[in-house]
Amino acid sequence: MILEVQHETRFEYSDPVAEAVSEVRMEPISDPDQSCRSFHLAVTPTVEIFRYQDGFGNRVHHFNVLIGHKECRILAASIVDTHPVQRELQSSPALYPVCLAGAELETVDFLALAGPMRPTPRLVALAAALQPKEGERVADTLSRIMAYIHEHFEYARDVTNASSPVEDLLEQGKGVCQDFAHLMIALLRSFKIPARYVSGYIHRPNKESQSHAWCEAWLPDLGWLGVDPTNNCVANEHFVKVAIGRDFTDVPPNKGIYRGRAAESISVRVETRLLDLLPSLSWQEQLPPLHVPLTAIRSRTRMATEPLPDDGGQPQQ
User: Fold this and answer.
1) Nearest to 245 by CA among 65, 115, 67
2) Edge-to-edge, what's the strand order for the sheet holding 254-259?
3) Tens digits of residue pLDDT in 200-238
4) 302-304/254-259 β-pairing
5) DSSP H helical segments within the chain, as ranges?
6) Which pLDDT belongs to residue 273?
7) Residue 236's Cα: distance from chain center in Å?
8) d(Cα 228, Cα 67) in Å, to the nearest integer?
9) Are the beta carbons of 118 and 154 closer than 8 angstroms?
10) What residues in the chain have per-residue pLDDT under 50?
11) pLDDT digits (tens, 9 = 90+) for 189-199
12) 3-class DSSP state for residue 299?
């Protein structure tokens, strides 16, 4: 499946800010399940953009807006060919507990309960209730946990934010895909099953496309396999992977800092389009306009370096 993805982020300030430094993870990765054929990043005001690869292999761009501005617009556009390796979850014979003897050393890094997945009484109680039995097929464990989260928690925006721990979802019973992914990762790690966080996009035919989050679990015979508790399914050709990490804090689509006393608002929109074939080399010069509206978001990934009168310079929403 060949997909064109456009992801626009717009920062607006109540007063001009003197400078802003940003780091974005918006370029899809290339791996056995997908190939990023082309990527284009445009920033207004015009800046010089730099690129590096982080410790998880994600592609990161960063830039510094050195002129006064009241608005900054970031448009990331990519062409991705998704071709998932055929790995049927239910065909896996792996049994619980998972044998890590053949795992690479880096896999062990995805076993720790930390950050937003810190152990709490509610998490411990839920893990005890869902504890797999010795000899249970790991595939059945993954399917059972996915289904439980999908059925017992409500998808709702503006209940949690980017820094919310799993405890907030467990207490309120509602959240977004990021929270569902964090909860599944926390449960799997409680059972000593390596699990990692994935950020990206999901193409939904005849529906609004969106940025998305899910997780990947490690099985001895299948390796890393994407599982999505929000939609109760295994990741397929409709999923576009952008970055992986231990949790959301490793892979935010954008984070940064600005210098000024202004209040900041952040709006985003994502649109995906199914293509019949790969476009020309100059495809980024003919991008179709985005038809979906901008959506205001709450974010904890940027902050002001000069204190605001009412909040002492804490990270801005």
Assistant:
1) 115
2) 50-53, 59-65, 19-24, 254-259, 302-304
3) 999 998 888 889 999 999 999 999 999 999 999 999 999
4) parallel
5) 121-130, 138-152, 166-172, 177-190
6) 95
7) 16
8) 42
9) no
10) 307-317
11) 999 999 999 99
12) coil
